[in-house]
From TrEMBL:
This is SDR family NAD(P)-dependent oxidoreductase. It holds the Pfam family adh_short. Belongs to the short-chain dehydrogenases/reductases (SDR) family. It comes from the Bacteria. Keywords: NADP, Oxidoreductase. Transmembrane segments: none annotated. Signal peptide: none annotated.
Length: 230
C-alpha cells in the first residue's frame, strides 16, 4: 500500500487529488490548517484519507506534522507540495517587498520547509516521489509570450518561477527521489474565484499522474497534456 502526504489538502486540487489517490487504495495524509473541517466532509466512500494539521508557513507546525506522520508510517512514498496562495495582486512597477512576502512564504519557502524534514521518510520508499504543484504562470517561456498580458502581477508568477528552480535543483542534487513539477492548468478553484476553464478533476490529472509515476525521468515540468516549457 502506498502512502502520500498532500499539503493544502482541505479543498480544491488538494482534496480532489487526495480522494483520487485514496480511491486507488492509497493512504493519504491530508495536511491542512483546519483538519477537523476536512474530516467533517469525508465519508467511508472517500477511502483512507487522514486529515492532519499542517501550516506550511510555520516551522513548529511542520515539525509537529513530521512527528504525527512518523507515528502513522515509517515510509512516505509521495510528498505533494500543493499548498499555495495568490498573494497580493500588484503590478511590478508598484509592487513592494511586502506584496511578495506572503506568496513567497507559502509558495516558495513552504515547500522547502516541508520537503527537508520529510526526505528521510521519503527515502525509505522503494521509489520516493516529490511532486511540486506549480503553474504555467511560473514558466519563463510562456510568460515571455502572451500569458504576460493575462496576469501582469508580480507575486504569484515570480513565486512559481522560484518554485520551478527549487524543483530543478532538488532533481539535480537528490537523485534518489523522483521529482516532478506539475502545472494543473487554469482550473476552477477558490484560488481564482472559480474562473478557471477546467474542472478540478481535470486540474488534478497531472498531480495524480506524477504521484503514480515510478519511472520518471526526474526533473520534468508537465501538465495533463505533456511537457510544459520552463
Amino acid at each position: 500500500m502506498s502512502t502520500a502526504l498532500i499539503t493544502g489538502a482541505s479543498r480544491g486540487l488538494g482534496v480532489v487529488a487526495a480522494r483520487r489517490l485514496a480511491a486507488q487504495g492509497w493512504t493519504v495524509l491530508a495536511g491542512c490548517r483546519e483538519p477537523a473541517r476536512l474530516a467533517a466532509t469525508l465519508t467511508a466512500a472517500d477511502g483512507d484519507i487522514r486529515p492532519i494539521p499542517l501550516d506550511v508557513t510555520d516551522d513548529a507546525s511542520v515539525e509537529a506534522t513530521v512527528k504525527e506522520v512518523s507515528a502513522h508510517t515509517d515510509t512516505l512514498d509521495v510528498l505533494v507540495n500543493n499548498a499555495a496562495i495568490v498573494g497580493v495582486m500588484s503590478e511590478p512597477a508598484v509592487a513592494s517587498v511586502e506584496d511578495l512576502r506572503a506568496a513567497y512564504e507559502t509558495n516558495v519557502f513552504g515547500p522547502v520547509r516541508v520537503t527537508r524534514p520529510f526526505l528521510p521518510l521519503l527515502r525509505r520508499s522503494a521509489v520516493p516521489r516529490l511532486v511540486m504543484v506549480s503553474s504555467s504562470l511560473g514558466s519563463l517561456a510562456e510568460m515571455s509570450d502572451w500569458r504576460w498580458d493575462n496576469h501582469p502581477h508580480l507575486a504569484y508568477p515570480s513565486a512559481k518561477a522560484a518554485l520551478n528552480m527549487l524543483s530543478v535543483m532538488y532533481a539535480k542534487t537528490v537523485p534518489d527521489v523522483l521529482v516532478t513539477v506539475v502545472n494543473p492548468g487554469f482550473t476552477a478553484t477558490d484560488l481564482n474565484d472559480h474562473q478557471g476553464t477546467q474542472t478540478v478533476e481535470e486540474g488534478t490529472d497531472a498531480i495524480v499522474a506524477a504521484a503514480l509515476d515510478t519511472t520518471g525521468p526526474s526533473g520534468r515540468f508537465l501538465d495533463r497534456f505533456g511537457t510544459v516549457p520552463w
